[in-house]
Amino acid sequence: MDIAKRLQDYGFHAPTVSFPVANTLMIEPTESEDKQELDRFCDAMIRIRSEIRDIETGLMDRKMNPLKCAPHTQRVICSSDWNRPYTREMAAFPASYIKPETKMWPTVGRIDDIYGDTHLFCTCPPVTDQLY
User: Are 71 and 6 in contact (CB under 8 A)?
Assistant: First the structure.
């Protein structure tokens, strides 16, 4: 999940997670993706792996790091309250090709996906409203 969320900071739509195989990412490039875009995706994955290595070796905190806090919304980055042990630049612009004038900002930060899946509630109007 962390890798999928962090990919949003690199400008990619988060891939499908744990379907059809648990604990995996389903990455589906299409014929519409050119080599430059595929190279950019590979670069993002290599950079994310480097961030994971920094967590493994203790260079980054295990809980407060760019992966665990991803995606980073514009609201979070622009807030005067920045209490994270990494820079705003690392959060929002993790690669030199990500520019402020062309960045695709995630609209929401992290949500508790499991909670939503295990605590279902109907937001539909009552069935009686559907009767003519």
Answer: yes
Sequence ranges of the domains in the chain = 1-118
- How is 77-130 classified by DSSP, letter by letter? HH-S----SS-HHHHH--STT--TTT----SS----HHHHHHS----SPPGGGG
Residue 25 backbone dihedrals phi, psi, to 5 degrees: -110, 135
Q: Report phi then psi at 51, rounded to 5.
A: -65, -40
- pLDDT for residue 116 is more than 70: no
The reported pTM is 0.77
- What the block records as the tokens of 100 is 């402020």
